[in-house]
Amino acid sequence: MIQTDAIDAPSSAPASSKLGLWGVVMVIYFAVAGGAFGIEGLISSSAPGMAIILILVTPFIWSIPTVLMVTELATAMPVEGGYYAWVKRGLGPFWGFMQAWTSWLYGLVIAASFAVLFATYTSSFLTQAFGVTILDTNALLHWLVCAVLIVLFVFLNIRGAHAVGDSSKLFAVMVFAPFVIMIVLALVKWLAHPGLAAPLHFWQPVTPPQTSLLSAFGLGLFVVMYNFLGWDGVSTILKEIENPLKVIPRAMRIALPIVVLAYLLPVLAGLVSGADWTKWGGTLGFPELAAAVGGRWLGIWMAVGGMFCAAGLFNAMILTNSRIPFSLAADRYFPQGLTTRHPRYGTPVVSIIVCAVIYALLSVQTFSSLLNVTVLMYGVSLLLQFAALIALRLREPRMRRPFRIPGGLPAVVVLSLLPAVILVMAVVTTVQDKDKGPSFVALSLPLLAAGPLLYLLTRAIFKRGAPDVPVPIEYDEAAL
Length: 480
Hints:
- This protein is mostly helical.
- About 70% of the residues lie in helices and about 0% in strands.
- It has 18 helices and 2 strands.
C-alpha cells in the first residue's frame, strides 16, 4: 500500500476521548432524527396514508444512497473535515468551499431551531404538569432557556466527542422510553378494539380531500426530507472516532433501521389514538397524542422526552457543525484563531464558542419558514458530495476503498441521481406553492449566491495565496 499526500491536519482528539461504536451510532441518530418529534406536520399536510408511504419510501431514495456514499468516502478518506475534504479533493477548492458554506449555513439554522425546540418542549412540560404558561408569553424568558441550553452543551462539547457520545446514549434512553410505552398501549388498543373505525382504518385517508396522489406526495416531501437529513454530519469528526474504517460501516447499518422505526412506529401509534389528523403539527404534537393514547401522565412524560430529544439534537449538531469553520480556518479561508484547540481535550474550542454565539443570536425567532430553505441548502451540499464520489471514481480509480459501493460507476451514477430527483421534485413543488413559493425563492437564492461571493472575499482577505491542507489518500498495491 502506497500513501500519498500524507500531510493532514493534526489529530483533533486524544485516543482516550475518541468515540466508540455505540457513541457513533447515537451521534448519527441525533444528527438525523433524535425521535419522532417534528414529523407531526407530515400527517396534516399529506394525510395519514401518504405520510406512512413517505416514511417508508423516502429512506430508499434519500437516506440509503447518502449512507452508502458517506460510508465509501469516509472509509477511503477518514480525514479532518470529512465532506469538506472529500469535495475539495474530488472537485477542487471552490466546490469544497461551497460544500462547507452550504453545510455550515443549514447547520447554524437547524442547531438554533433545536435550541428553540428545547424551550418549546420545556414550556409544554410546564403547561401539562403544572399549568404554567410563562414561557409561551414571555419571549425573553423563552430565549434565556435557549441560552442556558447552549452554554451547557458548549462546555460538554469542549470536553470532546466521547463526552457527547456518552450523553447521547442517556438522551436516547430518555427519548425512547415514552415512545415505547405509547407504542405498546396503542397496539393493545388496536388489538382490543378491532371494530372501532378509527383504530381499524388509521391509515385513512390516503390523501387530503381534493388532492391527487402526486400532490400529496409533494406536499409532505420537504417535511420528511428534513427529518431524514444529516447522515453525512458524522464525517466532520472522523478523526475523533476510534477506528473509523470499521466503526462507520457498522454504525450506519445499525442507525438506519433505528431512525426509520423511530419515525414509523410513533406515527402509527398516534394515528391509532383516533386524534384528528388535520390538527397534527398544530394543536396536536406527540405530548398531546401520547395523552390521547395513555392518559395525562404519558403526555407529561412525552413532553420530557421532547426536551431530551431537542437537547440531544442540539448536542450532536454542535459537535458536527463546529468542525466546519475549524476546517475552513485550517485552509486559511477563515481567521486562524478558529483553529485554536483546547490544551487538554484537543477540541476546536474557539470554533465551538463562535458557533454557539451565532446559535444564541438566531434562537430569538422560530424557524418554520426556513425549513424548506435549510433542506435546499443541505440538498446542494449533498449533491456536491455525490459529484465528488463520481469524480473520485473517475480520477482516482486506484484509491483504496475499504467499503466500495457495488455495481461499478453506473451504479454510483444511478445512486447519485435518486437524491437529485427527489430534491428537484421537492423544490418544484415548493416553488409552485402560492403560499410558500415566493418566500422560498426570496430566501434561498441570496443564500446560495452568497457562497461564491464569500469565497472571493475570504481568499482576498485571509487566504492570500496560501495553499490548502492536502487531503491524504492511499492506493491499493494490487491496482498499481
